[in-house]
Amino acid sequence: MSLTLRTISRQEHLAFINSRPSASHMQVPAWADVKAEWRSENLGWFDASGELVGAGLVLYRQLPKIKRYLAYLPEGPVIDWFDPRLEDWLEPMLAHLKEQGAFSVKMGPPVVIRRWDAPVIKDAIAKKQAKSLREVEASFIEPRAFELNERLRRMGWQQGEDGGAGFGDVQPRYVFQVPLADRSLEDIHKGFNQLWRRNIKKAEKAGVEVVQGGYDDLPTWQKLYEVTAERDGFRPRPLSYFQRMWTALNTEDPNRMRLYLAVHEGEALAATTMLIVGGHVWYSYGASANHKREVRPSNAIQWRMMRDAYALGAHVYDLRGIGGSLDENDHLFGLIQFKLGTGGQAAEYVGEWDFPLNKLLHKALDIYMSRR
């Protein structure tokens, strides 16, 4: 297949994304407005007949003092990753990005390599059989993903560092997802473990009400988020980031981003953000108060979001990042434990890949990032 690549308009890019069953929320044109500190470009691949067959959002981060850029395609581009002629897609992209002043390219193919069903992981934890997901026999393996990895290596791409659970600007290799397609809501609820079902019931009995919020409720979100950041020891994003996210994403599509609040006796005890692209729904950010945890607002809010995702016709509810460790002493173990209760699946993506267009500057960036 003969492919050509050029810059496309946001409208062309969005029309292409809308024609797909799903794509990452980081590959919609409006994500460029969320990441306002990066320069952006919309790329399109065209076949011989002139039809748009692939698209990618590129974010450019400038190096201090010189006009050279890191070009980043988070969870993208949206192309045919299993095409045996993958070079036809990636070589024109590298040439174009080099012309734009990129010294290094980072991308994240949205390709799952392995999946583990919740019972398999629970069993491994209970029997202390494994210290990491990689040591547990997968419930599903995608052979073509291994071929993709090999092909990328041969082309000179280098596998990036594991993104942990996806805090910051590096995307997670491991995520936790609840499949919704071809299941009833009753079936999804039955898939929860006993503790989750009990906690959902507890929240209902206590009178926890989950409501959809709007832009004006973002300051309430921010207070809970800052409490969570202090409790869990991470640096919170400012309120302006979430306001920008809301405005950018919902201007592009009025149902792209939602805010949920779990309210008890007139007080918001938990809040979450949800992102929607086609049939893929993400639980994006979550926050909760330090008090009244016994009324289980976090379980109530997740169940409401899953039900709403199901009503939208989504095929997957994505709880985003988890760590790959099954060690109970690992600081991210609580995250996988909480998400396991939904009865979904852990999924491993092929991870992020780097192509150094200028090896010296690429190495300098590596050193700089490791010192941050």
From TrEMBL:
InterPro entries: Acyl_CoA_acyltransferase, FEMABX, PG_Glycine_Bridge_Synth. Keywords: Acyltransferase, Cell shape, Cell wall biogenesis/degradation, Peptidoglycan synthesis, Transferase. The keyword Transferase applies. The keyword Transferase applies. Belongs to the FemABX family. This is Peptidoglycan bridge formation glycyltransferase FemX. It comes from Streptomyces thermolineatus. The lineage of its organism: Bacteria, Bacillati, Actinomycetota, Actinomycetes, Kitasatosporales.
